[in-house]
Design a protein that fits this description.
Mean pLDDT: 79
Order of helices and strands: HHHHHHHHHHHHHH
Helix content: over 70%
Oligomer: single chain
Structural class: mainly alpha
Low-confidence stretches: 1-5
Number of strands: 0
Distance between the termini: 37 Å
Number of helices: 14
Strand content: under 5%
Largest sheet: none
Length: 383
C-alpha cells in the first residue's frame, strides 16, 4: 500500500461526487433527447436507431479504447472523454439557436457521445483499484451501484420537469456544466508496468491475461448471456405495465421507480455490509433471484400489477450484487490490464444487448410480452 492510498476515501468520494453530477446531467440530456425525438417523429424506428447509436460505438471500438486507457493517464482519459461529450453538446446547442435540430444531427451527436463513453467507462473502472485498498473494493462497488441507482431515480424525473420549462439547448448547457465538473477528479497513482508494445499486441495481451483466469473468463461469457436475457426485460417494462396489465403511463413510472428504489436500497446494503465473503455466491444469488422474479412476473394474471411492482422492487434490490463482479476483476487482475479487460467486457455485452432487444421485438410481438418475460426469466435462471 503506497502513501497515495492512505487517504483513499477523500480521493475516491471526490471522484464519485464529480461523476454523480456528470452522470445526472448526462441522463437528463439523454432523456430530453428521447422526449424531443418522440414529440417530433412519434416513430419507434427512430427511437430504436437512437438506442443503437448509443450502443454500437462502445461495442466496436471498446477493445481499442481499453488499450488506449492502459497506455495513458486514467484521469486524463476521463477528462478528455467528458470534454469531448461536452463539446458535442455545445455544438448541438449552438445549432439549435439558428435552426430546428435535424434528426440526422441528433443521431450523429449520440454516436459521438457513445464514443466518449467507450473511453470513459473503462477508465473509470480501471482507476478505482489504483485509489482504493483491495479489501474495500466490494464496498466501493456498492457505493458505485448506489450512485447509479440515484442517477436512475433522479435523471428521468428531473428531465420530465426541465423539458417542460426549458428549451433543449438550455438542458444541453446544463450537461456541459456537469461534464466540466469531472475536472475535480483527483489524480490517482500512475498505473504500474505501462506497456511499450504495439497497440494490437497490447489488445491481445489484455485478452490472454483475462483468459488465463478461467473463472473470470467464464464470468465474461456468463455476463454476456445474462445481458442477452435481461436487457429486453428492462426495455419492455412500459409495455408490460401499460399493455399486459392495462395500466397508464403512471403505472409504467411506478414500475420503473420500484426497480430504481430497490436498486438504491440494494446498493446501500452492499455498501454497508459488503456482501458475502464468497463473491461468486453473491453474483450467482443475484442472477438467480432476478430470474425467478422475472419468471414470476410472466406468470401473473392481468389484475396483479401490485405483485409485479413487488417483483420489480426485488429485481432492483438484487441487481447491485451482480456488480460485485467488477471488484473480482479489480482484485484478481494486474492494474495495467484493467482498461483493456473492462472495455472488452463492455464491448461483448454491448453486442449482446442489441441482439437481445432484436429478439424481444420479434418474439414478444408474436407470443405476448408476458410469455417473453417468462422465457427470459427461465433463461436467466439457467444462466
Amino acid at each position: 500500500m503506497t502513501t497515495e492510498t492512505k487517504f483513499w476515501k477523500k480521493k475516491y468520494f471526490t471522484m464519485l461526487a464529480g461523476q454523480s453530477v456528470s452522470l445526472i446531467t448526462s441522463g437528463i440530456l439523454q432523456m430530453s433527447i428521447i422526449f424531443y425525438l418522440t414529440a417530433k417523429t412519434n416513430s419507434a424506428m427512430v427511437l430504436s436507431i437512437a438506442t443503437l447509436m448509443g450502443f454500437l460505438p462502445q461495442a466496436v471500438i471498446g477493445p481499442f479504447a481499453g488499450t488506449f486507457v492502459d497506455r495513458h493517464s486514467r484521469k486524463g482519459v476521463m477528462i478528455g472523454a467528458d470534454l469531448m461529450i461536452a463539446a458535442t453538446g455545445g455544438f448541438l446547442a449552438v445549432v439549435s439557436v439558428f435552426m430546428e435540430l435535424p434528426i440526422w444531427l441528433i443521431m450523429l451527436v449520440l454516436f459521438v457521445r457513445s464514443i466518449g463513453n467507450a473511453f470513459h467507462s473503462p477508465a473509470s473502472s480501471a482507476v478505482t483499484p489504483l485509489m482504493v485498498p483491495q479489501d474495500q473494493l466490494t464496498k466501493c462497488a456498492g457505493y458505485n451501484q448506489t450512485m447509479q441507482a440515484a442517477v436512475s431515480l433522479i435523471s428521468p424525473a428531473a428531465a420530465a420537469f426541465l423539458y417542460s420549462v426549458w428549451s433543449l439547448s438550455t438542458i444541453i448547457l446544463l450537461d456541459i456544466i456537469g461534464a466540466v465538473l469531472v475536472l475535480s477528479i483527483p489524480n490517482p497513482p500512475i498505473c504500474p508496468g505501462e506497456s511499450q508494445n504495439s497497440f494490437f499486441r497490447d489488445m491481445k495481451e489484455g485478452y490472454f491475461e483475462l483468459k488465463k483466469n478461467k473463472g473470470l473468463f467464464a464470468l465474461l461469457w456468463i455476463g454476456t448471456a445474462y445481458m442477452f436475457f435481461f436487457m429486453p426485460i428492462s426495455a419492455l417494462y412500459p409495455l408490460m405495465s401499460m399493455g399486459y396489465f392495462r395500466g397508464t403511463p403512471t403505472h409504467a413510472s411506478i414500475a420503473e421507480i420500484a426497480f430504481a428504489g430497490g436498486m438504491l436500497a440494494g446498493g446501500i446494503l452492499l455498501s454497508v455490509w459488503g456482501g458475502f465473503k464468497n463473491r461468486i455466491f453473491s453474483i450467482g444469488l443475484s442472477v438467480l433471484v432476478m430470474g425467478v422474479s422475472i419468471a414470476i412476473s410472466g406468470l401473473l394474471p392481468t389484475n396483479a400489477f401490485f405483485i409485479f411492482v413487488i417483483c420489480c422492487t426485488v429485481m432492483g434490490l438484487t441487481s447491485p450484487f451482480y456488480g460485485v463482479q467488477n471488484a473480482l476483476f479489480q482484485e484478481q487482475l494486474p492494474p495495467e490490464y484493467l482498461g483493456r479487460v473492462f472495455s472488452l467486457l463492455g464491448s461483448v455485452m454491448s453486442f449482446a444487448m442489441p441482439l437481445g432487444l432484436l429478439c424481444s421485438g420479434i418474439f414478444a410481438e408474436r407470443i405476448g410480452v408476458e410469455k417473453w418475460f417468462l422465457l427470459c426469466g427461465i433463461g436467466i435462471i439457467a444462466v
